[in-house]
Write a structure and sequence with these properties.
The structure is a single chain. With about 100 residues, the chain is mainly beta. It has one domain: Jelly Rolls (Sandwich), CATH 2.60.120. Helix content is about 0%, strand content about 65%. It has no helices and 9 strands. It has strands at about 5-10, 15, 20-30, 35-40, 40-45, 50-65, 70-75, 75-80, 85-100. Strands 1, 2, 3, 4, 5, 6, 7, 8 and 9 form a 9-stranded antiparallel β-sheet that branches. The protein is globular and about 40 Å long. It starts with 6 loop residues before the first strand and ends with a strand.
């Protein structure tokens, strides 16, 4: 889906790693949430509360998920991150992404 309709968008950006990772939260009519963002080249550590599906719209990165080896992700490609976990990213080239949160 390239266009989201009938959503609420957070005015304030989420800014991490001194501005190298930014996103904006969006909420759909059914209460589901996503973030749309950009990551500049670099290495980043993240933690999750909910299961996440990360769609890489453009760019290239490597991801290290729990109990797995590094995996290269090249747009357009997606990967899932388990709930309540930590993961690492090595962003090779600027990444435009959409992250969907799955609540249980």
């Amino acid at each position: 889906m390239s266009v989201f309709e009938n959503v609420k968008i957070a005015k304030k950006a989420n800014i991490l790693y001194e501005g190298h990772v930014t996103s904006r939260a969006i909420e759909f009519e059914d209460g589901s949430k996503k973030t749309l963002g950009v990551m500049l080249p670099g290495e980043y550590d993240f933690t999750t509360i909910h299961e996440e599906l990360i769609d890489v719209e453009s760019g290239e990165l490597e991801v290290l998920l729990p109990a797995q080896d590094w995996k290269k992700i090249v747009a357009p490609q997606s990967f899932k991150v388990p709930a309540n976990s930590k993961f690492k990213l090595k962003v090779i080239s600027l990444v435009d992404y959409c992250c969907s949160f799955k609540k249980h």
